[in-house]
DNA sequence: CAGTATCCCGCTTGATACTG
DNA sequence: CAGTATCAAGCGGGATACTG
């Protein structure tokens, strides 16, 4: 049973989703967690070349605050922290797949009818 | 026939899609074009309160350059311009729907098991 | 190990004015 | 009607250094 959307509310709804996914490093982080993978802070530093500690921490905090990633702290010295997707975070897959499918569709549509110039802008 | 994705390439693929959709006004513009709607430049100015002429033109140019929106110019005085979705642009709907579905899923997952505190961060 | 704290820069956005 | 041009502000992100 889906909600009812007007042009304005639907745009707002999608914008809220995009805000959760925006951020230079969030998608790379997420794709390293899909499939039930569990990563530690230092794992991400190795898996994602170029990311700074500041950005890694910031993006993880935001994903956690948004309920997409869960953080599990083992209170020991030295500290150990594990990151994994929440159930909702895992449910993101179909939406991302749909985007990839849409991107793939581009080429097939362009090649399907490539000679259809109907007075486009110069 | 879907492509094959690694964590890195899938992230890049989704990022490319997000880049097409990012921009303060693009989604509002798109939702005013879904369903075969056709709009003129001045229509958007009325439909989208608060948008400046600069931003409207810029977002439309980008959507056009990305192949999502098509621009049809009638060479007359005063000029008349119509905007509509390309076939590929219309094909965006399922992807946006998937995002909205995911957002809706959040509440159902939260209410389903709301007492599952497994040592989250303080 | 797993972070915080500062400083700084570029890019997007907004405000305003002008035009074929 | 349908734009373009210019200038300034705000925010995300990068570099670097420090800490329980």
UniProtKB/TrEMBL annotation, chains A, B:
Domain of life according to the entry:
Bacteria
Record GO terms (molecular function): DNA binding
**InterPro entries named among the record's database cross-references:** HTH_HxlR, WH-like_DNA-bd_sf, WH_DNA-bd_sf
Q: What is this protein called?
A: HxlR family transcriptional regulator
Source organism (scientific name) = Sterolibacterium denitrificans
The organism's taxonomy opens as:
Bacteria, Pseudomonadati, Pseudomonadota, Betaproteobacteria, Nitrosomonadales
């Amino acid at each position: 049973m889906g909600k009812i959307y007007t042009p304005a509310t639907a745009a707002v709804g999608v914008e809220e989703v995009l805000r959760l996914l925006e951020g230079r490093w969030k998608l790379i982080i997420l794709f390293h967690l899909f499939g039930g993978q569990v990563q530690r802070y230092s794992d991400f530093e190795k898996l994602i070349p170029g990311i700074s500690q500041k950005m890694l921490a910031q993006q993880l905090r935001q994903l956690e605050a948004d309920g997409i990633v869960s953080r599990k702290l083992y209170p020991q010295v030295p500290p150990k922290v594990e990151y994994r997707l929440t159930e909702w975070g895992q449910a993101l897959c179909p939406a991302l797949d749909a985007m990839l499918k849409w991107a793939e569709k581009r080429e097939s549509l362009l090649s399907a009818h490539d000679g259809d110039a109907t007075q486009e802008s110069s």
